[in-house]
Design a protein that fits this description.
heterodimer; A: 142 residues; mainly alpha; B: 766 residues; 33 helices; 2% strand; elongated
Chain lengths: 142, 766
């Protein structure tokens, strides 16, 4: 597929990938108040990597992802599951949300919470799952 | 208490590492845990020996009435003491028996899990918790029986045990749920007091039958007894543990436990009495036919289980005292005998009694211990087994019903057991020394300490009957009978009918022992006995199961996507439509339809796209028009201000295109494979689902059953979820558990697809 990727596509992909990833993180973090969230953000990031895959090849996409999608999938599930655990120690039902908001001067209030950890877990599962499939298909092709 | 029950699981987690690092001494060190538990349970003794009960309560899933609550009374303590006490010796013994075995670390891990599960069964107060532990014993014993997993026969035997006990477990679960509903509580401590309500319960018969199916399979009662001798495939320490104090006694435990609640009816008396007595007879008869050291003991275990079931069924004061005494006596001598059988097998290299002989000089301690334990098995004074047997005879002759039947079978069984006890204790040791595969010598200390101490206890308890009577049996009898009784256990009961029966049994038994070789010849000429066994039935059922599985796989899992879709869609349509129209009757309420012109345009585009996609002759055209459908639906989401859902839809559409591009070149050329009639059928299926959904949505808009939950979620979103995006608040906070389930599905699907793609790639590579 490497030979087929056009110069324009490759150049575009190289610039679009970081932008899409940044956008996906933006979507992920604003998700609690504005449209967005882990699911959508994970799909946005997956589209970015898929674009990169088209422009280059599977091996290079794996390298730039830095983490095996299968591992990312597992870690995402782990993070999401663990985010339900703190409430147990506070004698509340499993998955009762915990909030630790704090003020950062100049930026504003940061809402650190277990739902945030959960959403990051969802993000990783979605991104990991999609890339796991897409990369497998691309590698089977090669 | 929680730690005491669960400590076995904790140790199981680290046991493999401990075993490797401790080397030779692993058995001795690991045995410290059961020894500590034994001491701990003994310390509870004063609190419960007069029929009191202590309930220790830890909430687990309070919303479902499922608690980790533990009931400590005489009965559960008797079992807990036996499990931990005998467990201690078994662990030491296993260290010697399986010395140097490569799977020993795994063995200890499973063994401790099993022990913990067993303690959980006998100590649970909550029915559901009890059931969970019950199934855990089935699963761990499956792993133990199939320990020699490279051996096909061992795997088969293990599977048989699992299928029989877990099959019974399903019935048990249904029975326990009925029991909990009938009594209005899932706590045993509350259920047992409501015997009146239980016996009046309209479904009493069904409930008892279901529970008994569970206990009969677990405790190897006729006709389910066949799995137990096959469980001999396990290494001897496992057999010794499973058959003396644990696994198979779980069923007996549950029957004894539920006796105050369910007992006292004709159904209970006759079912337990008849099946117990038949099992007792079958066990001793089959023991008489066996020549393997472990097989003989396995069948005498079947006999003992039958006896206990029968005694619980009879349910009189004498019977309950007899049952608890017999249970203790049996656990002591059976564990000892099994460990000795293992020592014989280990040292001589054969399991066949006929091939052993003259070992008395080479293995004197084994010989002496075997004699003591076998005397207890045979029920001879001054051993504890004698007291148990006397009480058992007394209970059968004074039974309110079935007295002749049970006493008669008890006498016949006793004769055969006396003979087999003599065979076990004398044949391998007396006579001339026979050539055996290994050169025999005395077993190591680790393999003798258990049997010696247990046999000694059989003797001490027999001579000093007041010791166990005051402590173990008294408390257990109080829990099973419902009210405390004054239990006195003495060797001498005076000249009475039970003593006469014992004398007859011993004399006839000795005659049978002398003529045993003749008896074996006789049996050898009657091979039809094997064919009569219920094991054939088990095989038939398993064959039928496999046949049905293959048939339904052929029919349902035929590999055609279109057939799956038709099945799923038609099932949904028929089930939903039937329910819907039955409940609405004739008049289906339809809501007002109110739409804007741009909505109509988008819907028109979606419909047009769908039609084109299904008739087009170009693959790219189909992909493009399906994309139109997807983006159109995304637009509709946006119109109804579900921006999140709309965005997700667009992303999914985009990814679908990417995936399609990846596979497009791999697809075969576009062909029209379906004829007109199958296309018409597909159209009908699609139209029926579409039509049904349309009617449903219109109806949903027209009827308001309850206040919609969406209003409240909107209201709660900011104050409770600290978020203004309601969809996200629901996903990650309000319904986080649902989302967790969904992302697990997503992950599993990804792994499944990955496996499928690689499978195809591998096939091509070949």
């Amino acid at each position: 597929m490497n030979a087929m990727g056009s110069l324009i596509l490759r150049t575009a992909a190289r610039f679009l990938l970081p932008l899409l990833l940044l956008f996906s993180i933006f979507v992920l973090l604003r998700g609690h108040d504005e449209p967005g969230g882990g699911f959508i953000a994970g799909l946005v990031a997956a589209v970015g990597f898929a674009l990169y895959l088209f422009a280059f090849d599977a091996a290079r996409t794996r390298r730039i992802m830095a983490m095996n999608p299968q591992v990312m999938l597992g870690l995402g599930l782990l993070a999401a599951t663990l985010s339900g655990v703190p409430s147990i120690f506070l004698d509340q039902a499993f998955f009762t949300a915990q909030w630790w908001p704090f003020e950062v001067p100049g930026i504003g209030e940061i809402k650190l919470s277990t739902p945030l950890v959960f959403d990051i877990g969802v993000y990783m599962v979605v991104l990991g799952s999609v890339m796991h499939i897409v990369l497998a298909l691309a590698e089977a092709e090669e | 208490m929680l730690i005491a029950v669960l400590s076995g699981f904790m140790l199981a987690a680290v046991a493999p590492w401990l075993t490797r690092s401790l080397g030779d001494k692993a058995g001795w060190v690991l045995a410290l845990l059961p020894a500590l538990l034994f001491a701990y349970f003994l310390s509870w003794m004063p609190a419960v020996m007069h029929g009191d009960a202590v309930v220790v309560h830890y909430p687990w899933i309070p919303g479902l009435d499922i608690n980790l609550s533990f009931l400590v009374d005489g009965l559960s303590l008797l079992f807990a003491v036996l499990i931990s006490g005998i467990g201690t010796f078994i662990i030491i013994y296993a260290g010697g028996y399986l010395h140097g075995d490569e799977y020993l670390p795994r063995f200890f891990a499973i063994m401790f899990s099993f022990m913990a599960a067993m303690l959980g069964v006998v100590l649970s107060d909550n029915l559901i918790t009890l059931f969970v532990f019950w199934e855990l014993t089935s699963i761990t014993s499956y792993l133990l029986i199939g320990y020699h997993h490279e051996n096909k026969e061992a795997r088969w035997c293990a599977l048989q045990g699992l299928v029989v006990t877990v099959g019974g477990g399903l019935a048990l679960l249904a029975g326990l749920i009925m029991l909990g509903n009938a009594a209005g509580s899932f706590e045993l401590s509350e259920i047992l007091g409501s015997g009146e309500i239980l016996r009046e319960y309209p479904l009493y018969t069904a409930m008892v039958v279901l529970i008994l199916l569970g206990t009969f399979t677990k405790s190897a009662q006729v006709p389910f007894h066949f799995w137990l001798p096959n469980a001999m495939a396990a290494p001897t320490p496992v057999s010794a543990f499973l058959h003396s104090a644990t696994m198979v006694k779980a069923g007996v435990y549950l029957m004894a436990r539920l006796n105050p609640g369910l007992g006292g009816t004709d159904l209970w008396l006759y079912t337990l009495g008849i099946f117990g007595a038949l099992t007792m007879f079958t066990g001793s008869f089959m023991a008489l036919r066996s020549t393997g050291v472990k097989a003989v003991l396995a069948y005498t275990t079947v006999m003992a289980l039958g006896t206990l079931t029968m005694l619980i069924g009879i349910g009189t004061e004498e019977a309950i005292i007899a049952a608890m005494t017999f249970l203790l006596a049996h656990a002591l001598y059976k564990a000892a005998l099994f460990m000795l059988a293992g020592a014989l097998d280990h040292e001589t290299g054969t399991k066949d009694i006929l091939k052993m002989g003259g070992l008395r000089r080479l293995m004197p301690i084994t010989f002496l211990t075997a004699c003591v334990a076998a005397l207890s098995l045979a029920g001879l004074p001054p051993l504890f087994g004698f007291i148990g047997k006397e009480l058992m005879f007394e209970a059968t002759v004074t039974a309110p019903a079935l007295a002749l039947f049970t006493a008669g079978l008890a006498l016949i069984s006793a004769i055969m057991i006396v003979a087999m006890a003599a065979v076990f204790a004398l044949r391998p040791f007396l006579g001339d020394l026979k050539e055996t595969p290994k050169k025999p010598h005395e077993a190591p200390l680790s393999m003798l300490i258990g049997p010696v101490i247990l046999a000694a206890l059989s003797l001490i308890f027999g001579l000093a009957g007041f010791l166990p009577a005051a402590a173990l049996v008294n408390g257990a009898v109080a829990s099973v009978y419902g009210t405390p009784l004054d239990v006195q256990l003495y060797l001498w009961h005076g000249f009475n009918l039970p003593l006469m029966l014992s004398v007859v049994a011993v004399i006839a038994g000795i005659v049978l022992f002398v003529k045993w070789d003749r008896v074996l010849e006789l049996f050898a000429r009657m091979p039809f006995i094997d064919r009569l066994g219920p094991e054939r039935g088990y095989e038939r059922i398993m064959d039928a199961l496999v046949w049905v599985a293959e048939w339904q796989t052929r029919v349902l899992q035929n590999g055609y996507m279109r057939n799956y879709l038709i099945t799923i869609v038609m099932t949904t349509v028929v089930a939903t439509a039937w329910t819907f129209f039955v409940h609405t009757g004739q008049g289906v309420p339809l809501g007002e339809i109110d739409f804007r012109i741009y909505e109509l345009v988008v819907v028109g585009l979606v419909v047009a796209g769908a039609i084109v996609a299904s008739v087009t002759r170009s693959r790219l055209g189909a992909v493009a028009t399906l994309g139109l459908v997807g983006f159109g639906i995304a637009m509709i989401y946006v119109f109804f201000s579900a921006a999140d859902v709309g965005t997700t839809q667009i992303m999914v559409e985009t990814l679908t295109v990417i995936l399609l591009v990846l596979v497009l070149f791999r697809l075969p050329g576009f062909q029209n494979l379906s004829d007109t009639s199958s296309r018409l059928r597909d159209a009908a299926v699609a139209a029926s689902l579409g039509g049904l959904m349309t009617i449903l949505i219109l109806a949903v808009n027209a009827v308001e059953v309850a206040e919609p939950i969406s209003d409240r979620l909107v209201h709660w979103s900011v104050p409770e979820g600290f978020g203004r995006n309601i969809v996200n608040v629901i996903l990650v906070d309000f319904r986080a558990l649902d989302t967790l389930g969904e992302i697990f599905v997503v992950g599993l699907a990804a792994i499944g697809i990955y496996a499928m793609i690689n499978l195809r790639a591998e096939d091509k590579g070949k």
